[in-house]
Amino acid sequence: MSVALALALAAQDAPIVITGRGLDEPEGGQVVLIEEDKVDEEATGRLEGVLSEVAGLSFFRRADARSVHPTAQGPTARGLGGNAASRIAITLDGVPQADPFGGWINPAAFDPATLGRVIVARGARPEPGAIGGQIYLESPTAGPRSAALAYGSDDSWDASAVWGAEVGQGLFVASAGWMRSDGFVPIVAEDRGPADRGAASDQKVARLRLSYPVGRVETQVGLTAFDDERDRGVDGTDNRARGLDLSARLVGRDGAGWSLTGWWQDRDFETRFAAVDGDRETPRVVLDQYDVPATGAGARGEVGWRAGAVDGNLGGEWRRAEATVAERFFFVAGDPTRERRAGGETRLLGLFGGAEVEREAWSLAATIRADQWRFSDGFRAVDVLAGGSLEDSHFADRSSWQESGRIDAAFRPSERVTLRAAAARAVRSPTLNELVRPFRVGANATAANENLVPETSDQIELGVDWADEGSSVRATAFAARLDDGIFNVPVNMGPGLFPGVGFVSSGAILSERQNLPRVKSHGVEVDSVHALGPVDLRFSYAFADPKLAKGPFAGNRPPQVARHQLSAGVGWDDGEGRSAALRLTYASGRFEDLENDRPLGDAVSLDAALRWPLTDMLQLEARGTNLTNARALAGFASDGARERTAPRTLWIGLRVGRD
């Protein structure tokens, strides 16, 4: 037997290391890693709280999933402007998490107890929808086994459990989270009326995941289910979102590696919207969206290659989303008189490839991608419930090719310092919700637009990193441009009967989804971590100065963008179960609208968390958010009443388990 054959056989017999992760992690640009223990100890117990550690990220509405509508939580970054659909690509174990119908993210489906590491990469990336960046969520490792139960403000309960075990050579993890609350009153005290009450919520999520070797291949199978019920603090604003996800990923790590991922997602959503009279005394339902079934499916494969000093990859991806919406509107004496149905299908077929070369002092990496986006079978029909048809529209099928890419260069003049430069282009295609479905919020109405085109972003970056044992600082200056950005653009005022939406009452706003010509933004991002024995310090700051560069709102700031964002925290862990954390977050004022007529002031929150062992297996937990009870405005109701984010919230509970 030759030496080469013996080595080959030995390599085949060597056990593979099961990680539960994919081939690689995001590199290049401003990348922030939030370790699993930091995710689990977050004071708010919500994904929004975890992500607030990374300045520059923001959701379409400031309020979190305790009170905001689930369709208003699309995240964005770099001042590109807020949108209900996500302008950041979010994946869980490699599977896209944007809703197949609306493109929004439902943070209630991501209890931090059911998550492992979180990796945030700011800046345009050649992935579908990643014009503001990418967020990589991972399932927890198999090590911890724990359960926690806490009671808090507004008669709230928060429970979670994680159980991991080795199964042969594989890993199995089961996790679950539940949070329910009577809720706080979203409308500020001065603007409330008899109709206002607490915004109740009841949210559950469960995950099962198995990673197991089959020959030389790591096989990862996942199942997720969630159920999110909440309302907006007024009768007639209840909503419910449910989801079931199945995924499988095969990972081969021999040689340059390869992976194959497939997923299937089932979503169901229902909601009601209500308008309140001028005295906020009597709510009336204006829209009953009683059935929104949606499905998403996809597959992605890639293979690595090596040629001398160059490492690369080639791959392809296919995605499909299909949805319909059924809703009743135009209520008279409390009963609906119209019914609308709308829907369609979108498909995406992408090809991508990349290469990287690295030397002692420098590296260069590039990725290019081409995607064909197709919109088909689009329709919208409006019927009079008493009989008769008002609209029966069928939209022409259409498709287009979009190119994206990124190039990163790095130079290391010393062991501690790295200089970076990057240029990137990313694309986000319109969602079915934006293309075919009009909607109402209170008395205001927004029309769909079946002629929307994909939005694109071009960005350049210059950065410097410094790292020493236990400490790191990363800083990036960027310039970004958003072309054909999709926004809700005001086009008229009521009263009147308008195509696509029907009657709009006096004083209410009619908007339409439109591609605006251009947004320009520039700014800086700084992140630092310092470990000083049992103490760690974390700091994150982002500045963005965006402007609408063309069109009727030229010179204005895009909606829902703060110029300054800050997160500063200190944590202590003695390594024996005792830990404490204190974090301050700040965001400067922003506007709710394109006209910049409805300003939202600064927002500040001081949050804290404490864990203290009572026995070897039992810990006391105490958490508090917005400890100073600072008031931050989240938006305006259609009658002008001001909505706020969550007030001071306190939790006390117990955790049992072991690592």
Automatic annotation (TrEMBL):
Keywords: Membrane, Receptor, TonB box. Transmembrane segments: none annotated. Residues 224-627 form the TonB-dependent receptor-like beta-barrel domain. Its main location: membrane. Residues 31-133 form the TonB-dependent receptor plug domain. InterPro entries: Beta-barrel_TonB, Plug_dom, TonB-dep_rcpt-like. It is found in: Cell outer membrane. Belongs to the TonB-dependent receptor family. This is TonB-dependent receptor. It comes from Sphingomicrobium clamense.
